[in-house]
Write a structure and sequence with these properties.
single chain, about 85% helix, about 0% strand, membrane, transmembrane, transmembrane helix
Length: about 240
């Protein structure tokens, strides 16, 4: 398989985790209320852990060698500010799709970075692809619940929408592979921008939703999500 074909496969697999998460949310039916509530919050926390592992194990360490302190810090903070601005705009417009917007806002830059990193032969590209899938599955799960409860869209239409969005991954991945690979500084800036946005999303959207009064299982989901990223990192490095 050629390198560009591998990029398409990896980014598509990561993207297809979004409709898979939405499908799981659709078929989920646990008759015990407390257990269903615990599971949903645990999945949210798991996604937060996977996102943090992507930031800590791939996006930040792979980008810092190509940038100076001022540029690296500026890109990281700019990512957080951009996600905050998106949140504010969605809130003012009354759009109930913050989880969906956050999912796309980190998926597309990550796919760009993955394509460019794969062109350089970076071992972190495989880990990033796996972490993208790990985070997209619970994000798709949560975004489906958010949209299903606040919009008139049918389950079939929502899952079809998520399926269509999954193809943004190969498009962005090919763009990174073909056009960004000769510019490692630009790739590093995109990775840090995405990292700042992801960190904002974890604490703005995921962490508050993961908390349950007098329940201690959901935070363990965050630990497990990060642990899977750690295992992948140790196997590839």
């Amino acid at each position: 398989m050629d390198a560009w074909q591998t990029v398409i496969v990896l980014t598509l697999m990561a993207g297809m985790a979004m409709p898979m998460g939405a499908w799981l949310a659709r078929v989920e039916c646990i008759p015990i209320d407390w257990l269903e509530n615990e599971l949903r919050h645990g999945i949210i926390a798991f996604g937060g852990g996977a996102l943090l592992s992507a930031v800590a194990l791939v996006l930040v360490p792979d980008s810092l060698p190509a940038l100076g302190i001022a540029t690296a810090t500026g890109c990281f903070v700019a990512g957080g500010l951009a996600f905050m601005a998106l949140d504010i705009a969605l809130n003012r417009s009354g759009t109930s799709a913050s989880q969906l917007a956050a999912m796309l806002a980190d998926f597309v830059p990550e796919a760009l970075a993955l394509g460019a990193a794969f062109a350089h032969g970076s071992s972190g590209s495989l880990l990033l692809a796996g972490l993208m899938a790990l985070q997209n599955l619970p994000e798709g799960f949560n975004a489906y619940h958010e949209l299903r409860s606040t919009t008139p869209y049918s389950s079939r239409r929502l899952i079809g929408l998520f399926f269509a969005m999954a193809w943004l991954g190969p498009l962005a991945g090919l763009g990174g592979f073909l056009w960004l690979a000769p510019y490692p500084t630009a790739v590093a800036m995109i990775m840090l921008f995405a990292a700042g946005g992801i960190l904002y999303s974890v604490f703005q959207d995921l962490a508050p939703q993961a908390r349950l009064e007098r329940h201690w299982g959901p935070p363990l989901g965050a630990v497990l999500g990060f642990a899977l990223g750690l295992i992948g990192h140790m196997l590839l490095v």
